[in-house]
Amino acid sequence: MFGYYCRLGLRSLKRNMVLTALMIAAIAVGIGACMTTLTVFRAMSGDPIPQKSSRLFSVQIDNWGPDKHAGGGADHLEFQLSYIDAMGLMRARAAKHQSAMYATRLPLRPADARQKPTKVFVRAAFTDFFPMFDVPFKFGAPWSASDDEARAAVVVLTKDTNDRLFGGANSVGKTIRLDNEPYTITGVLDDWRLLPRFYDITLRPFGDGDAIFLPFNRAIDKHMGNVGSTQCNGDADPGWEGRLKSDCVWLQFWAELPGEIDVQKYRAFLDNYAAEQQKIGRFHWPPHTQLRDVMQWLQYMKIVPSEVRILILVSFGFLLVCLMNAMGLMLAKIMGRAADIGVRRALGASRKAIFGQCLIETSMIGLAGGLFGLLLTAAGLWAARSLLTKEFVALAHLDWADTGITVLLAVSATVLAGLYPTWRAAHVQPAWQLKTR
To answer: Which residue stretches of 293-399 are H helix?
Structure first.
């Protein structure tokens, strides 16, 4: 019966191609507008590292006190750490993996003299950064913990950087020049992109990522300044050493804690650390610390602008208007066939059969509208890429999940919109229609 109803539905849709095209177009335009904004929203608010987002924690310590704070949220905690606190936590080694980090920008001189020197973003971090964030390697491996201690001149390249410098070949053991100094390559990353880049949201969280990674201690020894946010609660001594000895906050700090017991222990450790700083006279207020996992951190930092949420509501409202128009067209089409439906009812067709046939016909319209809406969504995202800043271009893309949601939403919404016209069709009185005939 299903195949029979499908053939009847196709025959019915072909009878009035203009009305059918209008219904499909109304649904497709609403779906396209809605899914374009929803796709961007999902990319912005999704879990960037779902396999372990609940085990990665951003560390916050109040080293300014209740009267002065850098902001960051309702609890008035600075969202970054000072060098003093970051090194104190690194020396304690209280987490399975942990890393202080910051971003700098350095001139890169390729080994090939035919390539022009460029400035690239460089991430200064400890070797724990790579296993902590499940960073995949195509060639080689991270530098070692002894390289961290020795301030070794070693680097890890991203895949894009390696493709640009070495044509995608295995470059492990080769040398590049950063800030006019030679650095040996220990590893090359495979495809790896976190959106948003939660470990440092002060620097283009949706834009191009870090091109090169090098040891944190090496960057500090070479006085490599950061390019992200730096905030101070007072006058710091001049120069690089003055910054390192100050309470200026400019470093990110992340820790991996595998279980709830580890989280509780680390919270206690943080409180004890802050209490000890109070005892030695550095802090003059009660300990105030916080741990937030990845999704809590993104929510705390309001990574998704409120304007995007409003745009989602507007787009769904537009979809509702389009569905109401499609419902009106469906009702007009079905009522135009009232005589045919009346004849079928008089010949013995049940209301259930009429309802099933019209519902399948409505679903076919929804499927066609969804496929057409998918094309409009792709066109909308293409237009968005040309209008958005470079930072947000990576968000405007369709994946299989978005494709499935688009088609499912179109069919479901169309079926819901078609319930009333279908119900009206099933309740056509055959006697009235035959009498008018």
So the answer is: 294-300, 306-336, 338-346, 351-387
d(CA 140, CA 155): 11
The residues that bridge with 104 in the sheet, in sequence order, are 122
249 and 152 share a domain? Answer: yes
Q: What is the DSSP letter of 251?
A: B
H or E, element range at 176: strand 175-178
220: nearest Cα among 124, 128, 144, 123: 124
369 and 231 part of one domain: no
Measured between alpha carbons, how far is 172 from 45 in angstroms, rounded to an integer?
36
163 and 84 in one domain?
Answer: yes
Q: For residue 125, give the 3-state DSSP assignment.
A: strand
Residue 80 lies in a domain: yes
Q: What's the domain count of the chain? A: 2
Tell me if 271 is assigned to some domain: no
Which tokens hold the place of 265?
């222990």
pTM, entire model: 0.74
Please name every residue paired with 291 in a beta bridge, in sequence order, or none if there are none.
Answer: 59
Residues 348 and 234 in one domain: no
**Which two structure tokens, joined as six digits, stand for 388?**
């958005």
Same domain, 238 and 311: no
Identify the H or E element spanning 128.
Answer: none
**Residue whose structure tokens are 């929804």:** 366
Of 256, 291, 324, the last residue of a domain is 256
Distances 125 to 102, 156, 181, 220, 231 between C-alpha atoms, Å: 7, 11, 18, 10, 20
* Domain edge (last residue) among 199, 225, 256: 256
Q: Would you write out the chain's pLDDT as a tens digit for each of its 437 residues?
A: 656 656 666 666 667 778 778 888 888 888 888 877 777 777 777 788 999 999 999 999 998 887 665 454 457 788 999 999 999 999 999 999 999 999 999 999 876 667 778 899 999 999 999 999 999 999 999 999 999 999 999 999 999 999 999 999 999 999 999 988 999 999 999 998 888 889 998 877 776 779 999 999 999 999 999 998 888 887 777 889 999 999 899 999 999 999 999 999 999 999 999 999 999 888 888 889 999 999 999 989 888 766 677 877 888 888 888 878 877 777 777 666 656 666 565 656 666 766 777 777 777 887 788 788 778 877 777 776 665 555 555 565 666 666 677 677 777 777 776 676 666 665 655 555 445 55
Classify residue 298: in a domain, yes or no.
no
| Host domain of residue 196 | 63-256
